[in-house]
Amino acid sequence: MSETVVLASSLRKIYQIGEAEVEALNNIDLEVQKNEFVVIIGPSGAGKTTLLNIIGGIDKPTSGKIVVLGHDLSVNDEDFLADFRCNNVGFVFQSYNLVSTLSVAENLAFPMEWTRKPEDYIKNCVEKLLKTVDMEDRADHFPFQLSGGEQQRVAFARALANDPLLLLVDEPTGNLDAKTSLKIVSMFERLKDNGKTVIAATHDEQIIQLADKKLFLKGGKLVDLVE
Known about the structure:
The chain is α/β, with parallel strands linked by helices. Helices cover 33% and strands 29% of the residues.
């Protein structure tokens, strides 16, 4: 019996820029099941990041409905959304979004501290996460001391800190060299093998090939990609 994790209905997002209106998303319908690996493909500016942000409760739609894990995110307040994100959704941003004043280990611990996990649990989990992304020797380093690929691996580990039910990933290999991209792809392979529900916006052909469902977003409209 499948379980719907994400259900978007007639989703629209309009940004007001001066006197002009820019339609980022136009009448989006989307359904993602538990354990599904979904990729969203499309040109720059097509609305991929906007869609991920709405699914994750970072942004709200102008109209339409977005239900994630049984919660209608379009009607809940910011306090609810902050707790919901921390407990249920892992984000990997294209710009990494690591906290510059925290070490690698502290960045990984932060989501668990927010959800008031016990200190011993956090310590053990940080060690496991560091090992997962092969960053044990960088635990005390700060983001500015890391390469782009290393920051991306830390961002992945932080996204997994609270074992989220849903992982949202925005162009994970867009700024990386080929060798580092392969490491990120191998992490996706492990996530898929472990049955994690993943929605990724990407141009990376190796990640696209892992997908159960491929969607194309252009001009704010979403369509199934038939190969």
